[in-house]
Design a protein that fits this description.
Blueprint lengths: L16 H10 L2 H24 L6 E2 L4 H5 L7 H5 L1 H4 L2 H4 L4 H24 L2 E2 L11 H9 L9 H20 L3 H20 L5 H22 L13
Parallel strand pairs: 1-2
Helix pairs in contact: 2-7, 7-9, 7-11, 9-10, 9-11
Length: 236
């Protein structure tokens, strides 16, 4: 099948990074669109099943001193929901079959690991008695995504997985440094939002970050041909 062929960036004189980004987004569009949609559908079916029907009593995650220092900030919901835009950028930039397989296996392992934790050890954030009646978005979020499936935070895990992969791909394209900084800022905002909206506690976020890093790094290495450094891209 044509869509499964390993594609290479065109050779020749060095092109502008904007052209490289546009080229990447245009490749394997059907495969990436269908794959991402199917993956999210399967994941959320499993996620909400475990959320609604835990097999063991849920453990309440303890608050740390940092949790008590971070106030409830409803406006952080914007950064929180932006994850669903953020996680689509890195797979949109994948070009070769090697990259797609490595990314797909990595994100699958991340989500499977989180779901296994939720199955074996259900957790929830403590009830803080927050009044969200004046914040329709947060009220809707809490009615759909309850305070279970807390640790590890897959919100943070998928955000750091995306940040590392996106950083790797942006270095390949050699975009301006400001875009790589923006990638880090966006990840930090999403992570902070999980604490500011009180959907997670610090220990959830730390566990999610460790899980995301542990899977992202080997998956990026697997996506990189042996003759290339994962941090540099050859234009030849």
């Amino acid at each position: 099948m044509r869509c499964l062929n390993v594609l290479r960036l065109p050779s020749g004189p060095r092109r502008r990074w904007t052209a490289d980004l546009a080229y990447r987004f245009r490749q394997q569009v059907m495969l990436k669109t269908v794959g991402i949609s199917a993956f999210m559908w399967i994941f959320f079916v499993a996620y909400f099943h475990l959320l609604r029907y835990p097999v063991h009593p849920a453990t309440v995650m303890p608050l740390t001193a940092l949790d008590r220092q971070i106030p409830f900030q409803p406006q952080a919901l914007v950064a929180y929901v932006s994850l669903w835009l953020y996680v689509g950028i890195a797979p949109g930039l994948l070009v070769t079959l090697r990259e797609i397989i490595a990314y797909g296996l990595g994100i699958s392992a991340l989500c499977a690991g989180g779901l296994a934790c939720f199955y074996a050890w259900p957790t929830m954030v403590p009830a803080l008695g927050l009044d969200v009646s004046g914040h329709a978005g947060l009220a809707l979020l809490q009615s759909v995504d309850a305070t279970g499936n807390a640790c590890p935070s897959l919100h943070v895990g998928s955000a750091i997985f995306t940040a590392l992969w996106l950083g790797h791909l942006l270095r390949q394209v050699r975009v301006p440094r400001v875009l790589r900084i923006l990638n880090g800022v966006w990840f930090a905002a999403i992570t902070y939002s999980t604490l500011a909206t009180k959907q997670h506690v610090v220990l959830d976020a730390l566990a999610g970050a460790l899980l995301g890093i542990a899977i992202a790094l080997p998956s990026i290495k697997a996506a990189t041909p042996p003759h290339k450094s994962p941090l540099r891209h050859s234009s030849s």
